[in-house]
Design goal:
Number of strands: 6
Radius of gyration: 20 Å
Strand order of the largest sheet: 3-2-4-1-5-6
Structural class: alpha/beta
Order of helices and strands: EHEHEHEHHHHHHEHHHHEH
CATH superfamily of the largest domain: P-loop containing nucleotide triphosphate hydrolases
Number of helices: 14
Helix content: 40-55%
CATH topology of the largest domain: Rossmann fold
Largest sheet: 6 strands, parallel
Number of domains: 2
Length: 312
């Protein structure tokens, strides 16, 4: 008989939906170790604006892929998959269960479904797309993406330059939409038995209020000072993924003198709401998702019930 697959838990949800609190509560009750699935938390120095768990929380529960790489690096989805699988294997070998927590839905998808056979980056084509964006604007290139790959375009904000550029690059190099190639995965299915939990706020207005409260708390906690330390390093620039993270991008523009603080706050909040909307869109179509109403006070009880059924 084949060996049973080891268990693993995905805990997904929009930003500010309470993922960290629920993950820590579960880890205090069960033999779990947390793997961060967050494209900002992976970088060192991104703490306040990335809602990094406190030092006490990090010490209380083992965490992986937090404070992991320098912000001058480009951390790819492919590298995440490789290192997440390594961490999962190590956790399982210690007799514990990996709990993967975050809101970077592309990372979850790549981990679960594998990497697609996508063409490599083409420097000349990227330069051409950047030149077009400089004259036409990224919303115009997003409109082109809507025509050639509406499925991918629906997941992207019209100013999400990096992702729009890559999607158009894939289309022009392969002649096929990115969304089609991504379904033609070359990797074997994830060899784990998955419990996939999704925190879904039933009230968008409540989530937006929480997003604003959290961002203003971050400002009071020294978020601008944190970004200024990155800004003063001298080796970082606004095209790096770390600096393009929601909140950091707008704070960087403010420190560069391009926008005032009030505009920075307004744009950061708008970008965070857009991020939450994209995350919610991903989750609505996520297969085998066990939905948990977020922000209602009984998320832990709901998660425990799903976990009890999963462990039978």
């Amino acid at each position: 008989m084949a060996e049973p697959l080891p268990p693993a838990i995905f805990l997904m949800g929009p930003t500010a939906s309470g993922k960290t609190e629920l993950a820590l509560a579960l880890a205090r009750r069960h033999p779990l170790e947390i793997i961060s699935v967050d494209s900002a938390l992976v970088y060192r120095g991104l703490e306040i604006g990335a809602a990094r768990p406190s030092a006490e929380e990090l010490a209380a529960v083992p965490h992986h892929l937090v404070n992991h790489v320098d912000p001058a690096e480009v951390y790819s989805a492919a590298r995440f998959r490789r290192e997440a699988l390594e961490a999962m294997a190590s956790i399982a070998a210690a007799g514990r269960i990996p709990l993967l927590v975050g809101g970077t839905m592309l990372y979850f998808k790549v981990l679960r479904d594998g990497l697609s056979a996508l063409p490599p980056a083409n420097a000349e084509l990227r330069r051409q797309l950047e030149q077009r964006a400089a004259t036409e604007g990224w919303p115009a290139l997003h409109a082109e993406l809507v025509r050639v790959d509406p499925e991918t375009a629906a997941r992207l904000h019209p100013n999400h330059s990096q992702r729009i550029q890559r999607a158009l690059e894939v289309y022009h190099l392969s002649g096929q939409p990115l969304s089609v190639l991504q379904r033609q995965s070359t990797a074997a299915p994830l060899p784990w038995r998955l419990l996939q939990l999704g925190l879904l706020p039933p009230d968008r207005h409540q989530l937006h209020q929480r997003i604003e409260q959290r961002f203003r708390h971050m400002l009071a906690a020294g978020f601008l000072e944190e970004v200024n330390r990155l800004y003063q390093r001298g080796d970082l620039h606004p095209d790096l993924p770390a600096i393009r993270a929601v909140g950091y991008q707008q704070a960087w523009q403010h420190l560069a003198g391009n926008i005032d603080e009030a505009t920075m706050v307004e744009r950061a909040l708008a970008a965070t709401r857009q991020l939450a909307k994209r995350q919610y869109t991903w989750l609505r179509g996520w297969p085998e998702l066990r939905a948990i109403p977020a922000l209602g006070g009984d998320a832990l009880d709901r998660a425990e019930k799903y976990l009890a059924l999963f462990n039978r």
